[in-house]
Amino acid sequence: MKQTAIATALLLATLSAFGQGAIRAPEASPAASVGQAIGITDVNITYHRPTVNKRRIWNGLVPYGTPWRTGANENTTISFSTPVKIEGQDLPAGTYALYAIPSASQWTIIFSKFTGDWGVYNYDPSEDALRVNVTPQATENSEERLVYTFDDVTNSSAIASLRWEKLRVPMKIDVDLTSTMRANIASTLRGGKHWDANAWAAAARWELRNGSADTASTYADHALSLATTSGTLRTKAAVLEKKGDAKGAADLRERAKSIATEAETIGLGYGPLVGAKKYDEAIAYLNNYATAHPASSELWRIYAGLGEAYAAKGDAAKAKENFDKAMAAAHDTAERTEVWDSINSAAAEVK
């Protein structure tokens, strides 16, 4: 029986190879991929989507107790850009074939180092990187085509789910956000951003919010050694304040104000107010600034700020009105791109 199945698979593969390049036609089980960022970890699943097509799926088309490719055609693959935990067990970064051994009450999910298989014909348990057990869940609605989803996504975890027919098979993915961020910061600062003061200041601000004030101070000092700007001074001020030096922080903020660009002045004026949910104060600041500086080349930035503040406040009509003004006042593609970034950011915050 197995030899017949293998022969059939080889025949189909041969026919497929001869047909490639002649003309593209729809596949019975079309290719698909889905990706999700978990914090700064990228997870991607590549697979094919078979249909139910009035067939018995579980313990029918997909037998219980034997490995299955969790899709159709080539084996499904899953990739992780950083180390992760699957159901609490460590798995290194990399790309793996995703197999499963189904049963009525428990599935074994297999991550194999060999990713070049067709189906499971060349699956070798000695190449397993990890096996975990998960519990399948019956669903009310039927999924005609197999699909993978990411559910309950946070910055440190997500549930990757296989869904087909009336079954959902979830598996928990966890990432260590702190360690992945620190590794990313170290790699970035060793690379092309090594001489970028803004990158060192950004690293300092992240450490200040999430980790070590001493490490943040080291990063902030290095940023200042590369460039004394309003941004690097304000970053160092935040570090000093966190470490209890209120006077030193105030002095640095005064220095920062004295050398701030107009764009930085506008951002410093309304940004903290929006962050503190003082939307009316932020709107008043921006309107007053626009009235006092009617010929400013940064009017587009003021309108974009008003759009952000109104969006955060929940006034969609006013937000759109000001974003439209920002687009009209923008001078070039770069400025219009910044406005679009503000629009997209505001939309994401509303969601």
Order of strands, widest sheet:
1-2-3-6-7-8
Terminal CA distance: 53 Å
Low-confidence spans: 4-19
* Oligomeric state, counting identical vs distinct chains: single chain
C-alpha Rg (nearest Å): 27 Å
Topology order in helix (H) and strand (E) letters: HEEEEEEEEEEHHHHHHHHHH
- Averaged pLDDT, please? 91
The total count of helices amounts to 11
Helix and strand composition category: alpha+beta
For the secondary structure, the number of strands is 10
Helix content: 40-55%
Shape: elongated
The total tally of domains equals 3
% residues in beta strands = 15-25%
Largest sheet geometry: 6 strands, antiparallel
Give structural attributes.
351 residues, alpha+beta, Serine Threonine Protein Phosphatase 5, Tetratricopeptide repeat, 3 domains, six-stranded antiparallel β-sheet, elongated
Explain how this protein is built:
46% of the residues lie in helices and 23% in strands. The strands form two sheets. A six-stranded antiparallel β-sheet has the order 1-2-3-6-7-8, with no helix packed on it. The chain has a four-stranded antiparallel β-sheet with strand order 5-4-10-9, with no helix packed on it. It is built from eleven helices and ten strands. The chain is elongated and about 75 Å long. The protein is α+β, with helices and mostly antiparallel strands. It has helices at 2-19, 177-190, 197-210, 213-226, 230-242, 246-259, 262-275, 279-292, 299-313, 316-329, 333-350, and strands at 31-38, 41-48, 77-80, 84-86, 89-91, 94-101, 107-112, 128-134, 137-151, 157-174.
